[in-house]
Amino acid sequence: MTTSLSGPGSGTQTPGREPIGSRPARRAAPHDAPITLTGLAVKVILLGLTAGIAVWAAFPLIDAERWGGLALLLATTAGLFYLYLTRRHIPAKYLVPGTLFLIAFQIVPVLYTASTAFTNFGDGHRGTKDDAIVAIQTASVKQVPGSTEYALSVATQGDPATGALVFLVTDPQTGKVSAGDVSGLRELDAADVTVATGGKVTAAEGYTVLNFGQASARSEEITALVVPTDSGALRSSGLSRAYEGKAVRAYDKGCDCIRDAESGRTWTADEDTGAFVAADGERLAQGWKVGVGLRNFSRVLTDPDISGPFFGTLLWNFAFALGSTGFTFVLGMAIALALHSPRMRGTNIYRVLLILPYAMPSFAMLLVWRDMFNTDFGLINNLFGLGVDWFGQDWSARVAVILVQLWLGYPYMFLVATGALQAIPRELTEATSVDGASAWQSFRSVTLPLLLVALSPLLISSFAFNFNNFNAIYLTTEGGPFPADNPTSGATDLLITYTYRLAFGAQGAEYGLAAAVSIFIFTIVAVVSAVSFRRTRQQEEVYS
Asked: Mind telling me which residue stretches traverse the membrane in this protein (predicted)?
């Protein structure tokens, strides 16, 4: 008689039940993944930093009553906290930071530049109309008989050499001490200041009082500082005295104009240009920011003083970008082909030597090349026994900058061409040789088309880079040589250096006009790139 055992290890099981240990382990859901202590600490730090930035940014928005911006800030902060405090939306946790950085560093600057192009923003047209009126009135302050004089101490909030200047003045009648800057006067607590005999402030809490040497070093800034007051404005008289003067020019709201009490002249507000204009056309230097529509774009195309240099510079800009890209590609590809030959020996040594220009800082090498092209002691003239004034003539300066770009740019083209050549199967070129094709025919029909398919995107990006290659021009020729009748546009200027000179030139910054030129540059590069990429796709379809 056989007895069946049902105990542990007997190999039997109760019907309908799984034996112990036979169940597969439950797969953990993504939201069940444990959070490490390090990950939690990083999350807390980053979210705390986000909250701190939000609080820091909220106060200026509240002061300026920018309720729309405040609402956007609160919504963004709340969204970030919701996203990173929950275990859902895993893809968004990785996409959101990149999107925010894209908006902050790409989209917002582009939109700001585009909006600036439709304004007269620039020197003398930076603030509002009220700011312009205050600036005009305070700049015309003069000392009149009987005006109050104060003992003056000059101080800063921060570094004595670079901090914002503040006037510390003592009222001769009441003995009260006030601090004044461009925003006005504010009385200080007597317990926070130390006043010497004669009313001069020697120390004040929160301020660094300048000694005579420090004040002398910033005497021009001290003279230019005007502190608005209820009855006029406060200006310095030397480094130890200040006076409260009266504004010669005052704003008359009735006629919306500025009147000069001494000369009787009147400047009426012109809302279209953001300036006060006299009957004879004279404009006051201080104006305000207004929208001008398409006026800046129209000036670029129709103003002879701007359109002539603009279109001439545009032609040279294309020649420079095409020449720099084309010559560097040809030279880099030729060297890559030579080193790609199986009969070549010591290729690693040659490659190291050939990429040295690429490994050196470009700005430093541009300065070196500028000295090498010097007419009197430059290496180029001394080595070849020449007397060429490279940067003194139009054609020689343009040749010089392209030669510099050739030296700086060919290592990059050599590297990318080498990589592309190694990706082309040798069987293709060997097949053409078997068919009786010459080396040139094989290169033209097989190697070059395949190289262009691989390198066309890089050539397009190189063209876009060289089209806006500010350093290549500014660090070598600074845009020169310049014609005698136009110091704003030189023979080697690119549109980007021309725009820089418009924005920061000695004649005064015109940011609105410079932004309009930047829009033209962006449009040109975008159109050329779009057309080039379309042709590249057609090539890929042919050779795929």
From this structure: 40-61, 67-85, 94-112, 314-337, 349-369, 399-424, 445-465, 511-533
- State the CATH number of the domain containing residue 533: 1.10.3720.10
CB 181 within 8 A of CB 169: no
Final residue belonging to a domain, choices 249, 264, 284: 249
Rounded distance between C-alpha atoms, residue 414 and residue 334, angstroms = 8
pTM of the complete model: 0.77
CA distances from 441 to 218, 424, 448 (A): 72, 16, 10
Same domain, 390 and 531: yes
Reported as a single tens digit per residue, the pLDDT across 428-437 is 877 887 888 8
DSSP run (H or E) holding 202 = strand 201-204
- Domain range for residue 46? 40-117
Residue with tokens 């929208």: 291
What stretch of H or E contains 209? strand 208-209
Identify whether residues 238 and 382 lie together within a single domain.
no
- Based on the fold, state whether residues 379 and 442 are members of the same structural domain: yes
Residue-wise pLDDT tens digits, 423-463 = 888 888 778 878 888 888 888 888 998 999 889 999 999 99
Token readout for 540 is 């890929």
CATH number at residue 162: 2.40.430.10
In a domain, 5, yes or no: no
Residues 415, 337: contact at Cβ < 8 Å? no
Strand partners of residue 269 = 276
Work out whether strand 249-252 and strand 149-156 pair parallel, antiparallel, or are unpaired. unpaired
Q: What is the DSSP string of 123-187?
A: TTBSS-HHHHHHHHHHHTEE--TT--EEEEEEEESS-TTTSPEEEEEE-TTT--EEEEETTEEEE
Instruction: Output phi, psi for 510, to 5 deg.
Output: -125, 80
Instruction: Name every residue whose Cβ is closer than 8 Å to that of residue 320 and which is 6 or more positions away in sequence.
Output: 398, 401, 402, 405, 466, 467, 469, 492, 494
Residues 347 and 494 in one domain: yes
| pLDDT, tens only, 43-67 | 899 999 999 999 999 999 998 888 9
Number of domains in the chain: 3
Count of C-beta atoms within a 10 Å radius of residue 346: 8
Task: List the alpha helices (DSSP H) in 282-438.
Answer: 295-302, 304-340, 347-354, 356-359, 362-372, 379-384, 394-423, 426-434
For residue 179, which of 159, 197, 206, 161 has the smallest C-alpha distance?
206
Element (H, E) at 260: strand 257-260
